[in-house]
Amino acid sequence: MKILLTGSKGQLGKALIKLKPPYTKIYAMDRSNFDMLDIPSCLKSIKTINPDWIINCGAYTNVDLAESEEEIAMKVNFHAPKAFAEEIKTLGGRFLQISTDYVFDGEKKIHTPYLTSEKRSPLGIYGISKASAEEALEDIFQNSFQGIILRTSWLIGPVGKNFLLTILNLHLKNKEIKVVNDQIGSPTSTFSLAKVCWMIIFLKEFKLIFSQNKNRILHWQDNGETNWYEIALKISALGREIGLIKNNPKIIPIKTSQFPSLARRPSYSVLDCKLTKSLLNYEGMDWEATLKEILKKMEIDDKNSYSSKSKFK
Ligand SMILES: NC(=O)c1ccc[n+]([C@@H]2O[C@H](COP(=O)([O-])OP(=O)(O)OC[C@H]3O[C@@H](n4cnc5c(N)ncnc54)[C@H](OP(=O)(O)O)[C@@H]3O)[C@@H](O)[C@H]2O)c1
């Protein structure tokens, strides 16, 4: 099976490559050979490769900067996937679009996870760009079995820019770490998500996804609801338990209002994953367990910062 993977040097892209199933050839695309701002050139590559699947992990993911770089964010997150989806539909392949909890405003009551069918209501440019792509893809694939949107949230892994690496590195420098405790969601390991992507692609009863789910949307997160402050506490405790962290800075809970940022974030973004679990016959793991697995893959490197233990950089 031929897979064209965009954003292959991003954190999810790398996990997908790491967990590549047998008999799968990945065409690993990144900015150097597949600049998503140059859509005509990307379309040429898609035609030449003629993949069975495109997994679209390439994205403009800087949520705050997107507020001032709207045009770029919209091109990468909306116009490019829309054009790729149209092309793959014509070629007869399939498209897996990775989307986000930021398509929602987070105004729901806690303990009422978002269903795949709930109305999108993004708060900022990043969310708008990803929600616009979802709408376009639903439209393009409405009468076919060729497109799936997989929403996820709060990705963490041993490489790239993510909350886990930020908190680990703050342990090396700070005596105090302030973390918001009023945004509720579920962290998701890049490895859990990559595993689920491959399960979807190789699902025998693939067409069931569409009979049970008219809008072609699936959700995936690791299990459990939490907040960033609790995750930071857990990173600190587990890190010390496995001997990765030596320092013990004070972790202090703060409110989002005390940590001003350019973009607003949803205050509640737990996604209901029941449908995906039943389709894949897979329950997933609790976020604490996947966090521990990631921490075991990490070390302090010679630059005196935390990074992946393996060559998986
Ligand atoms: N991170 C999260 O917490 C989170 C949560 C929910 C959903 N998601 C979604 O999950 C997917 C994967 O996210 P991630 O965390 O793996 O993001 P990431 O680490 O930022 O990776 C995104 C990749 O896209 C590439 N990219 C950006 N602009 C590009 C362009 N013009 N042309 C080609 N490639 C370009 C980036 O390349 P450069 O490194 O060169 O910029 C990067 O390798 C995205 O669709 C994201 O929206 C992420």
How would you summarize the topology of this molecule?
Layout: E1 2-6, H1 11-18, E2 25-28, H2 39-49, E3 53-56, H3 70-91, E4 94-100, H4 125-140, E5 147-152, E6 155-156, H5 163-173, E7 176-180, E8 184-185, E9 188-189, H6 190-201, H7 208-211, E10 217-219, E11 226-227, H8 228-241, E12 250-254, H9 274-280, H10 287-296, E13 298-300, E14 306-308
The protein binds NADP nicotinamide-adenine-dinucleotide phosphate (NAP).
NADP nicotinamide-adenine-dinucleotide phosphate binds next to helix 1 and strand 4.
Under CATH at level 1, the class of the domain at 2-155 and 186-224 and 269-284 stands as Alpha Beta
What are the low-pLDDT stretches, counting only 5+ consecutive residues below 50?
none
Principal-axis shape equals globular
Q: Radius of gyration, rounded?
A: 19 Å
Classify the helix fraction into a percent range: 25-40%
Strand line-up of the largest beta sheet: 2-1-3-4-5-10
Bound molecules: NADP nicotinamide-adenine-dinucleotide phosphate
The structural class is: alpha/beta
Count of DSSP E strands? 14
The major pleated sheet works out as: 6 strands, parallel
Q: Could you tell me the strand content as a percent range?
A: 15-25%
What is the CATH fold-level name of the domain at 2-155 and 186-224 and 269-284?
A: Rossmann fold
Termini Cα gap: 26 Å
Mean pLDDT score, rounded?
Answer: 95
Order of helices and strands: EHEHEHEHEEHEEEHHEEHEHHEE
The number of helical segments is 10
Reported CATH architecture of the domain at 2-155 and 186-224 and 269-284: 3-Layer(aba) Sandwich
By CATH, the superfamily of the domain at 2-155 and 186-224 and 269-284 comes out as NAD(P)-binding Rossmann-like Domain
